[in-house]
């Protein structure tokens, strides 16, 4: 066992952390006000290898060999410390690109990769409550129903849709897209979409295998978990700094036992969630049988951790935590999407366990 | 007459404000949350029964009944406030605070003001302003350095003949930008420490009175919060509240603290209203929706949390009523008031948080009410004494010591 | 007459049982927990006011007052039970259950029994047994396969002339080994399903009645729990409770379920008593001890948890009183009774758990009261309907559906 | 990063697991009834390298090179799955032996190791509330006050005492020892001891360095955390098996959503606590600056996890969980000592943070 990063990982973490601390954090505050990401985001992040990191090198991307979800988790944690909304945009291409690279037809690869390699976006939508009506006509699919809210959907050329028994890539052209700026991840280019007999060509259907769909969702869960932990840690960092400056009743509030404990407990949960997310990513990279279960549990714990840490950070800031001049109220808003996206993770686990008593292999 | 026994007066208040909440507050809540704007039209409409100067009018307007003046007889104010606050919080916490904001300034005037001062205050509050808005008042006490700790105000009011010259900056001031009249607290004699602090009635437009930046807030956005700067504002000594005697009692600050004690049950109750709103929204969704083809109501995962929510809401409500009942019966309720406030705030945060999680992606929609209630709920654990301050009060009640 | 208004009857019960708890129960609690033995001497001593046949005597002995027979008038039984149960739970939950155990068997006889049956029951319960112990009774309903699910009893009572022949095994039977009389539930007509179930009064020593193994338990060890085997026990039909009519109503099982509803607030209240005991123990320790030279009471880490405990205890207590008040006023209290039971059980587990942690190594001492209370508290989330069953009842009340 | 066990670790885990499942679990139930461990415990565990694993080989023990707290954590987790009381006896020699081996005088080594190598026991007592009166006379110490309850103290020849500013080895000869059998870890040979001017020779004083004392307590915290997780997992294993057999309302109770969730949430916390404990052990082995903080957090989370998992297991068993014929009520009793020993871990953290704002290096 070894909890140390190797040199490549260390290099990536250091680079991304610098980017996150120097640029993303500041950009994020502005982007939250305006509801739009800065223009410079794409260029700067592309330099660091975002957006096309899951596209195989032989097809023009940057992926050499097999994809590392561990590296992605480490990276996602760092960028989310800067801004959850921008982090969502930096990570949204991975699931579509990796799924198409793994299970897609040459046509699907050609179309999607061309879009992404030219600065386009793609994103993942999970039909977690099975509300889409999907019918097959010939090999094509016809999809009716509502998508989202989904981050990056407002700017995406394609959306990877995981339904109960199908995984397919849908071109957004022809969808009735409504861009929105919700309270959390405001600048993440959210949208909802109405699909009416939206046609998905046979060549864009990636799989009917539940195991494949489960795997793609596990990728997303680990990434969400890692980013949630990043937001939680950002909240705790702010709270620690503030608590050592703010004086009440004649001493820094950071010396009051109740506030020390509030922060310390949130931090312990956060650190545990981070380990669980990294462990899950490591298991995904090795395709271990318990990987999906770990990914799901990591998201459960990280969701709890980020909700708690951000609320407690606001509490430690007191009145200042409630106003936009200070950074933590944004974090409390941003925290929600980590639990809401793809639906309540605990509910999913309960239904899965009910459906098939302990079918999902447990990890210990 | 309490939570156990229904009572016509309280149920009347509950019904009246309950339908006001549903029919008048809910429809405009999302808009004012989005725009961060005051609900001026509603405030005007509500003026007859939720007057901005209610503290001076007594509650006749709301209930049509006066308290028995006999101080030994039980009152009903505290319970009326608790019952009403739950309904208003159920409607929209931000709007509720906009409706009640002036009361913070009116009540010290009502308690300590001379007839002349009361008359002046009422005069300044009468009629409509240039925008046709009802007039509002601002209680200007907090300062950047004072949060939970209200001692050590930096604003000065130095005597100069028949006047005082006020200099300093105030923060977290409800109605700070729009107020027609300010009740500002400043120290007239720094050497006397807290004992030198006095409240002054200052009219909008007084030279040197500069409304400052308006805060953009996480929640309760229909209630205005702003800074106010006093740059050598001259106020006649007749507009100073309380006596000149350099005693801490004379400041009225202790009364102000007492006032906070007496409002805590109602504040906790307002939080209960938010929790109830989120709980009912989720229950309605559960009754009307299905999950993978099965009724949501058939899932323990969801229903047991609803049961939990109902349990917590009921418990918080009873703590608030209990604290109010004690106050109305002139019994010590310091610890109970803090329990009511702390428990209500916790329940509001807990219920809105869990409701969002159980609703899933739906809660990500812009203007989703439960997401708004989640943001609104947080302030109840912060203002009027943080959750930590409430527990400190309860703890001190147990041992006589202030834990740190 | 309720938690808000003090009342001589209730405060009398509180005082009397409170001092009984402190002076008579506490001193022997550790011994009976250690030995897992019944408190026979105390049971004899308490007989005058906590009779083993209280259900048939009415509560005259305890309070000296009879309820107004007018069914429309409010009763006080439920509230007396709630107030008394908290004090007894505060003394020792195990001893409290030993004192009350016979009531489970006596109440169906009181409700459904003929005069002859009541007389027989009282006769069997009168006097002392060969050990000089007061007589106790056992309600023999549960079976190995029936936990929260009381349908589908396997024990049979097949008619044979003027008799029934009872065959089957019972589990979780309070006083199962020591009882002088058993009220055993068995099916007289399997083809009729639940409708065939009847209760029978059987005296100790009846041929074929074999008290089985006594359970060794985690907590409430002063209360006896055992198996009872019925190997073709002949019982005269005159000792069958309820009518022969093959209807479910005739079984009295639904009454038994009603009885559970009516006792839930008191059960929740008993749990509150355990919580209060642990809370007061910790508070006393905090008042008298120091930590690294500073008073324990000066530490928020400990004091804020005490504040939290007081808050939860107060909330649970109010839920119990509320549910009892509704019952006494003949109002539906099914959901409220379940809330009281579930919340009280949760508070007892929470408070005893946290108190142990805060006490540190001291709580590892053998016979430490808080450790005992921690073990005792757990049963309140299991018996008389688990915490899950309570939430299921509340949920069904919300939507009409039983979630699974 | 690597979460896989190496071959040596895998071998040790498999061996100890077999021992735990085959022997310790059964022995533990009996030992809980009688309040005494089985005679065969010492011989069987010695074969597996317990008791003397922290004594350097050159002085007759089995320790080659540096001690591995990671291996100890993996091992402790496995034995505690069998029985917490017996596990406590198997692990109690480590702190005294390792501390004496590291900081002890040759005399202290000679005396302690001779005792342990001949089947003797030693144990650790933490004066966490600073109640001992310790005075120096010459180089010797004179100690007055009460020790314990401490596991293994009833059979120990020596007790390693960590006071606020001293770490020393006290011979138990001459102490007024009172053996006790508390509700938890009943067979762990607990005792309390009254010390009246108890003399500790100068040669038995190991250190006055707070950093040294903190390190020894960190060893113990990681071991406690790992064992606590073992008990939590045992509780969840029992609960899972029982829930799939026990039928209520016409179906196995394991299919009711509320019970699925109860168990699943406890399991997630438990898995996270296990990772945190292992991470802390790894950090101890590398002597990393954050090791002590990780060890303490691991104990916080593991304490929460074991309390929760054992209580929930009893809940899932219902009435059967409350009686000694079934295994889970013992686990609920055994859970308490993990939080109670050495005092409330959270309180310790709060006081440390107050004492020196953020002096203890945080791990993320």
Structural class of chain A: alpha+beta
Spans of at least 5 consecutive residues with low confidence of chain A: 357-362
Largest sheet of chain A: 4 strands, mixed
- How can the largest sheet of chain B be summarized? 4 strands, antiparallel
Please state how the strands of the largest beta sheet of chain B are arranged side by side.
2-3-7-6
By DSSP (H or I, 4+ residues per run), the number of helices of chain B equals 13
Helicity range of chain A: 40-55%
Mean pLDDT of chain A, nearest integer?
Answer: 95
Tally of helical segments of chain A: 11
Strand content of chain A is 15-25%
- Spatial strand sequence of the major β-sheet of chain A: 1-4-5-8
> What separation lies between the terminal Cα atoms of chain B?
39 Å
Secondary-structure element order of chain B, N to C = HHHHHHHEEEEEEEHHEEHHHH
Which pair of chains forms the biggest interface, and how many residues does each contribute? A-B, 50 and 45 residues
Roughly how many Å is the radius of gyration of chain A?
20 Å
Rounded to the nearest angstrom, the radius of gyration of chain B is 22 Å
Low-confidence stretches of chain B: none
Please provide a written account of the structure.
Chain A is an alpha+beta fold. Chain A has eleven helices and ten strands. Chain A has helices at residues 7-34, 40-47, 69-82, 84-91, 94-103, 106-117, 210-245, 257-285, 291-317, 328-340, 345-355; strands spanning 121-126, 133-137, 140-150, 156-162, 167-171, 176-180, 190-200, 205-207, 247-248, 251-252. In chain A, the strands form three sheets. Chain A has a four-stranded mixed β-sheet, covered by helices on one side. In chain A, strand 4 (156-162) and strand 5 (167-171) form a beta hairpin. In chain A, helix 5 (94-103) packs antiparallel against helix 6. The longest helix of chain A has 36 residues, at 210-245. Chain A is globular and about 75 Å long. Chain B has 404 residues and is an alpha+beta fold. Helices cover 51% and strands 14% of the residues of chain B. Chain B is built from 13 helices and nine strands. Chain B has helices at residues 8-35, 40-46, 54-57, 60-63, 77-91, 93-112, 115-125, 248-251, 253-288, 300-328, 334-359, 369-378, 387-399, and strands at residues 137-140, 156-160, 163-174, 181-187, 197-203, 209-214, 225-236, 290-291, 294-295. Chain B has a four-stranded antiparallel β-sheet with strand order 2-3-7-6, covered by helices on one side. In chain B, strands 1-4-5 form a three-stranded mixed β-sheet. A two-stranded antiparallel ribbon of chain B has the order 8-9. In chain B, strand 2 (156-160) and strand 3 (163-174) form a beta hairpin. In chain B, helix 1 packs parallel to helix 5 and helix 11 runs antiparallel to helix 13. Chain B is globular. The two termini of chain B are 39 Å apart. Chains A and B meet through strand 9, helix 8, helix 9, helix 10 and helix 11 of A and helix 11, helix 12 and helix 13 of B.
């Amino acid at each position: 066992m070894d909890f140390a990063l190797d040199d490549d990982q260390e290099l990536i973490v250091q680079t991304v952390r610098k980017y996150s601390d120097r640029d993303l954090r500041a950009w994020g505050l502005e982007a939250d006000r305006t509801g739009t990401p800065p223009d410079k985001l794409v260029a700067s992040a592309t330099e660091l290898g975002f957006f096309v990191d899951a596209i195989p090198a032989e097809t023009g991307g940057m992926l050499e060999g097999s994809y590392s979800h561990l590296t992605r988790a480490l990276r996602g944690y760092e960028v989310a410390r800067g801004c959850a909304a921008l982090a969502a945009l930096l990570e949204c291409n991975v699931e579509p690109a990796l799924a198409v690279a793994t299970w897609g037809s040459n046509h699907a690869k050609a179309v999607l990769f061309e879009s992404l390699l030219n600065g386009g976006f793609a994103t993942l939508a999970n039909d977690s409550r099975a509300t889409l009506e999907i019918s097959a006509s010939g090999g094509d699919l016809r999809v009716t129903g509502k998508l989202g809210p989904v981050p990056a959907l407002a700017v995406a050329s394609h959306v990877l849709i995981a339904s109960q028994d199908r995984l397919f890539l849908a071109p957004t052209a022809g969808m009735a897209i409504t861009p929105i700026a919700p309270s959390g991840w405001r600048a993440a280019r959210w949208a909802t979409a109405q699909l009416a007999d939206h046609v998905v060509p046979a060549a864009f259907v990636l799989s009917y295998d539940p195991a494949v769909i489960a795997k793609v969702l596990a990728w997303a869960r680990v990434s969400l978990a890692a980013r949630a932990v990043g937001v939680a840690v950002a909240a705790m960092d702010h709270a620690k700094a503030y608590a050592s400056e703010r004086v009440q009743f004649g001493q820094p509030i950071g010396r009051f036992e109740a506030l020390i404990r509030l922060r310390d407990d949130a931090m312990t949960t956060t650190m545990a969630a981070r380990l669980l997310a990294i462990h899950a990513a490591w298991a995904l990279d090795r395709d271990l049988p318990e990987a999906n279960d770990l990914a799901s549990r990591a998201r459960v714990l990280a969701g709890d951790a980020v909700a708690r840490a951000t609320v407690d950070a606001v509490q430690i800031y007191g009145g200042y935590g409630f106003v936009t001049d200070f950074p933590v109220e944004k974090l409390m808003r941003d925290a929600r999407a980590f639990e809401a996206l793809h639906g309540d993770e605990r509910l999913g686990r309960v239904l899965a366990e009910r459906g098939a008593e302990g079918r999902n292999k447990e990890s210990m | 007459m309490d939570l156990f026994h229904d009572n016509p007066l309280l149920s009347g208040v509950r019904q009246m404000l309950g339908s006001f909440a549903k029919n008048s507050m809910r429809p405009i809540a999302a808009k004012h949350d989005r725009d961060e704007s005051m609900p001026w039209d509603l405030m005007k409409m509500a003026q007859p029964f939720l007057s901005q100067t209610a503290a001076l009018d007594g509650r006749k307007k709301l209930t049509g009944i006066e308290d028995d003046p006999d101080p030994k007889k039980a009152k009903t104010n505290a319970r009326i406030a608790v019952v009403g606050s739950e309904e208003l919080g159920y409607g929209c916490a931000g709007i509720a605070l906009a409706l009640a904001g002036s009361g913070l300034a009116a009540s010290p005037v009502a308690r300590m003001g001379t007839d002349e001062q009361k008359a002046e205050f009422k005069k300044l509050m009468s009629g409509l302003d240039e925008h046709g808005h009802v007039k509002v008042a601002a209680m200007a006490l907090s300062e950047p350095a004072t949060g939970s700790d209200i001692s050590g105000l930096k604003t000065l009011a130095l005597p100069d003949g028949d006047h005082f010259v006020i200099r300093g900056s105030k923060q977290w001031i409800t109605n700070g930008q729009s107020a027609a009249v300010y009740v500002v607290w400043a120290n007239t004699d720094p050497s006397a420490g807290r004992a030198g602090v006095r409240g002054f009635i200052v009219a909008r437009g007084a030279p040197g009175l500069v409304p400052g930046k308006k805060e953009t807030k996480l929640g309760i956005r229909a209630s205005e919060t702003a800074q106010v700067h006093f740059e050598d504002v001259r106020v006649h000594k007749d507009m100073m509240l309380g006596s000149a005697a350099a005693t801490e009692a004379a400041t009225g600050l202790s009364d102000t603290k007492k006032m906070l004690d007496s409002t805590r049950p109602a504040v906790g109750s307002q939080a209960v209203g938010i929790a109830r709103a989120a709980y009912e929204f989720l229950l309605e969704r559960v009754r009307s929706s299905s999950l993978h083809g099965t009724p949501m109501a058939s899932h323990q995962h969801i229903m047991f949390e609803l049961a939990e929510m109902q349990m917590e809401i009921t418990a918080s409500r009873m703590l608030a009523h209990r604290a109010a009942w004690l106050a109305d019966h002139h019994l010590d309720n310091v610890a109970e008031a803090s329990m009511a406030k702390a428990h209500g705030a916790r329940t509001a945060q807990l219920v809105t948080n869990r409701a969002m999680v159980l609703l899933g992606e739906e809660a990500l929609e812009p203007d989703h009410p439960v997401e708004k209630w989640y943001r609104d709920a947080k302030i109840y654990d912060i203002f009027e004494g943080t959750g930590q301050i409430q527990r400190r009060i309860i703890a001190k009640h147990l041992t006589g010591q202030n834990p740190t």
